[in-house]
Amino acid sequence: MSDPLLLPPTTGVSDALLEGLNPQQREAVLYRGQSLLIVAGAGSGKTSVLTRRIAGLLQSREAWPSQILAITFTNKAAAEMRERVRGLIGEAADGMWISTFHSACVRILRRQAEAMGMKQSFTIYDTADSRALMKRIIKELDADTLGFTVGGALSRISRLKNELTDVEAFARTANISDPKEAVLLEIFRQYTAALRRANALDFDDIISETVFLFRAFPEVAALYQKRFRHVLVDEYQDTNHAQYALVRELVQPPRFAEGSGERPLPGASLTVVGDSDQSIYAFRGADIRNIVEFERDFPHSKVILLEQNYRSTQNILDAANAVISNNFDRKAKNLFTVVGSGEKIVGYTGYSGHDEAQFVADEIEKLRDAGASYNDVAVFVRTNSQTRPLEEIFIRSAIPYRIPGGTKFYERAEVKDAMAYLIQVANPDDDLALRRIMNVPKRGIGPATEAAMQAHAERLGMPLREVLRDAPQLGLGPKVTTAIVELGELLDEIGATVATAAPADILTALLTRTGYHQSLKNSGDPQDEARAENLEELVSQAKEFRTANPEGTLIDFLTGVALFAAADEIDDHDGSVSIMTLHTAKGLEYDSVFLTGLEEDLLPHRMSVNEAGGLAEERRLFYVGITRARKRLFLSLAASRASFGDVSVAMPSRYLAEIPGELIEWRQSAGGGFRGGAQGRLRAAPMRDSYSLPPAPKQKTEWTTPITNKVRDNGDLTLAVGDRIRHTDFGDGRVTAVTGAGPKAVAEVQFEQAGRKRLLIKIAPIEKV
DNA sequence: TCCGCAGATATTTTT
DNA sequence: TATCTGCGGA
């Protein structure tokens, strides 16, 4: 221990770094030892502790920035943590690795690509890519006759990879006499082989291949074991087995070659932070045991509990505590706060999803009238499909909103096409990418031609890309042959610039020279026009990327896009309400939170009810949602919900009954909203605290008025203060104010029945009377 | 090869 | 409710 970098802390950590911390937090910042588990309840200031701990290590010179590896759950969290550390101690923070598991592993794998038998230019398959590949394999093997589905096979394989079971290992353990197992093995084998051939990795590979790399090449592992002296992992409760194994590898004492003369080093110190009550990714292989059994895995580790909550009011915490206490086999935790009980939780039962959405919109406007900013409000949903009615009502009410990860930009067909061009140029081995763009824009290369090329490629064992050059030998029509050869030449030519050119320039060259952009612009279809605009947006994103990363290559850009997550696009200052899934909401906090769709079959979700541990996990999801709220929490549900064309009756979520009745003030309860038997499960939404019974059901025609998908357009209808209007849902009213101009003009209307509303004049379902 | 139509089909959460 | 698939005709 003569190394000055490994000395125990002296007085190196300044008081400023410890300012405002409670004793447990302070200990978590200052503790020095081999392994530390920080059990951080919701809102207990763990990010602050983690950043100060890192800052302390740097400030006291116990570590250089390059010796720090911090793993966060999202890229955005990583960027924020980096900023905060920099803010605490200045530039000395540069050189740290703060990133997600996936980003860190890709970085390692690119450096060591050769060792693992891949090219440095490997591409990353997202879920859609994996699905496309799996679809082909299942079709080819006729595996659907045995009941295999694309999703099913992929999730089996994903689980195997998360358990670090590769094809060989699975072949050894699989029960081959079971025909289904045998076919699964074959699917796994072909899937793996196809990825290899394409020089590509899927999301799970990124982690597992890194572990395999470290195990197969101890000298490579030693590189990182020597380098990283402090490994910190946030959200540890959501790590899967492969990630756990990776952490274990990283904190192993580095093994040195015989006679290298290097001094032995202890393993890196490990700090993990997490809360088993917030584990919500079991479906992705997250294993709660990683955190529960941490002390067994890493003997002599120190455990620090952070139980004081600095985020929420006592009412919100009481609700959260009451709910989560229904999960048995958990270590009791007792979150407390000193800020006081705060406002009551507000409950609301709508007639339909639209009614519920209207409630949310109305309450948001009230909050805004009371001085809140849209940024301070978030609306949570269980499933992505729930966002639609919310969007429709928000548009009508002129409430600015964002849906991080909603209709994902990078998942749109035209954007994927453009990305496939880039991928094919960066990684010519990627057949999947080439197949996607071969006939986009239309070149007359149909399925028959593709099959001929595929056969040729297989015969000669070459990637599809090389077949483009051999096209004249395939005996196809002259027109098609020319088209193929020209495509090949274009890709080759642009491919030659990849190492030096800026991503945006490469993309622009591809989009113009193939005529893809132009073909969309000229088509006359308004949808194609929007698609062309999306391509332009992609170009400008590529430009932005280069501005942010002046050295960034095409490969870097592709990696960034592949690992871009929903939570990364949350902007806290853009003046809009965020609508997101409960999963995306993890780690975030808002003054006001709306938890919507609190119904059976939605939360808990129908699909989870029969899964082992499913109900407990859904409850944790509910818990995560509740604990995001700082001051105000709204719980809402609908008595009927439209799903896939028809409407079904919804029951209140069983979890609602777990919240003590006195904490909730029901604006409109299930009491009258649900017709029929008021017994049994209906008790779940308490009636005794009903504040007001819902009005008699409206005329059927009124509340089933379909809110059409196509945006209504009132042309250049203009309204002035004093105008009387009629709204299809709200009835008659009088305009009290008009703000904004042109298509964004907003009218404030005092309705006779429905109260005051804000409406976007151009699209609201209104007419002057 | 391309286009349009009819009918089937899926239906959680995500790096 | 979309989105995808398969089929027949141009």
Automatic annotation (TrEMBL):
Residue ranges occupied by any UvrD-like helicase ATP-binding domain in the UniProt entry: 19-313
Swiss-Prot/TrEMBL keywords: ATP-binding, DNA-binding, Exonuclease, Helicase, Hydrolase, Isomerase, Nuclease, Nucleotide-binding
Enzymatic reactions: Couples ATP hydrolysis with the unwinding of duplex DNA by translocating in the 3'-5' direction; ATP + H2O = ADP + phosphate + H(+)
Presence of the UniProt keyword ATP-binding in the record: yes
EC number, as in UniProt: 5.6.2.4
Domain UvrD-like helicase C-terminal: from-to ranges: 314-587
Binding site for ATP: A40, G41, A42, G43, S44, G45, K46, T47
Keyword Transmembrane helix: no
Family (UniProt): Belongs to the helicase family. UvrD subfamily.
GO MF term set: exonuclease activity
Domain of life: Bacteria
Enzyme class: isomerase
Matches recorded under Pfam families: PcrA_UvrD_tudor (PF21196), UvrD-helicase (PF00580), UvrD_C (PF13361)
Entry protein name: DNA 3'-5' helicase
